[in-house]
Amino acid sequence: RYMKKKDSKLKVSKLSSTKSEPSLLEEPVVKKEKVKKPHYVDPVVFSNLIVQSYKTTVVDDELANCILKIATRLAYAPNFINYSYRDEMIGDAIVKMLYAVKNQKFDPLLGNAFSYFTRIAFNAFCNRIKKEKKEKEFVLNLQDAVYDDMISSGFISNKHQTDDDSQYSNE
Fold this sequence. Notes:
Structural class: mainly alpha
Strand content: 5-15%
Radius of gyration: 32 Å
Distance between the termini: 71 Å
Largest sheet: 2 strands, antiparallel
Helix content: 40-55%
Strand order of the largest sheet: 1-2
Shape: flat
Oligomer: single chain
């Protein structure tokens, strides 16, 4: 139902039903199965690569590529996408994940390697954000202190317009 205004009188009209009633002539609707997209990093393959790396103490190209994919894909998550230092976040995450591989921090019998290394990347991202925030606050405090010192020393005048500016005005 909807209301239609016509000559300052309200008229109620009935629309045809949006639900179609099943008829005997129509065939039943079959839902299509969703096609599963392959994982960008297969957790089982990733776990096997980690175990293989622990045995040989060498990080092969496929494992390094998986680590890069985890860090890069996490950087495009909604909570990290708008940072200007996203490349630094990815770099920190890669370093932390390679450190965990080198020192054999992950136990393959206890959990999922993909989730473990994604968590390492997430924590590296958060730490980079904290570090950048501290750096930004330091720079702002330093700028305020230098500006205040310059004003108090007379190097910069606190006036909006000085007497010297009058010679440049259009007369």
